[in-house]
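Run log // design_07
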């Protein structure tokens, strides 16, 4: 009797874990589909993004881990326009956000600061405006931050100096103002010695 009850409990736990996995997968799919709806896609690179699937791991340009959680979004140089959406901040396991060389407009959502595992944020060569959100300072795993060749304004947030993992910062060819940080990781990044790190400081 005890064995039968144990088996029943394990089956119940397994079903519950499966349900949780499906719900999480759908949540990430919903977030990505919200992004798709905000973008113009003349080359149909997002054609495979079907919101009726259990999770987005079979979609083109999406990479998942073994738990079917989204870890990469690769849409660089895809002729996309439109704007970024706050829902991207719900992709809790995202490590690489690659949206460079498109024509994306609007601002950088502050919700991107929720992506605690993000290693690379590459949104350079777009038409993004507004300020660099201070919330990006919460990205304690970030190594690559490339925001160059946009229309960003305002200062570089001092919160970025608290990211000890940061190795590459490129904010050139924007309309930034104020002083260049020299503490934390910026102490070792040659902002003044390499054209790839230059700032248009007003």
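design_07 sequence
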């Amino acid at each position: 009797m005890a064995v039968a009850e144990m088996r029943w409990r394990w089956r119940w736990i397994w079903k519950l874990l499966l349900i949780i996995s499906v719900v999480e997968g759908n949540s990430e799919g919903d977030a990505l589909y919200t992004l798709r709806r905000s973008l113009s896609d003349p080359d149909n690179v997002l054609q495979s993004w079907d919101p009726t699937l259990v999770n987005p791991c079979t979609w083109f340009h999406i990479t998942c881990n073994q738990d079917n959680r989204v870890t990469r979004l690769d849409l660089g140089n895809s002729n996309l326009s439109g704007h970024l959406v706050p829902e991207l901040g719900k992709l809790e396991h995202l490590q690489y956000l690659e949206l460079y060389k498109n024509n994306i407009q609007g601002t950088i959502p502050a919700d991107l600061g929720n992506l605690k595992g993000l290693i690379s944020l590459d949104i350079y060569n777009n038409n993004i405006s507004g300020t660099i959100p201070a919330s990006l300072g919460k990205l304690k795993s970030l190594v690559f931050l490339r925001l160059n060749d946009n229309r960003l304004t305002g200062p570089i947030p001092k919160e970025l100096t608290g990211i000890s993992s940061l190795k590459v910062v490129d904010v050139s060819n924007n309309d930034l103002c104020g002083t260049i940080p020299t503490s934390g990781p910026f102490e070792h990044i040659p902002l003044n010695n390499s054209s790839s790190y230059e700032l248009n400081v007003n």
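The first helix runs from residue 2 to 38.
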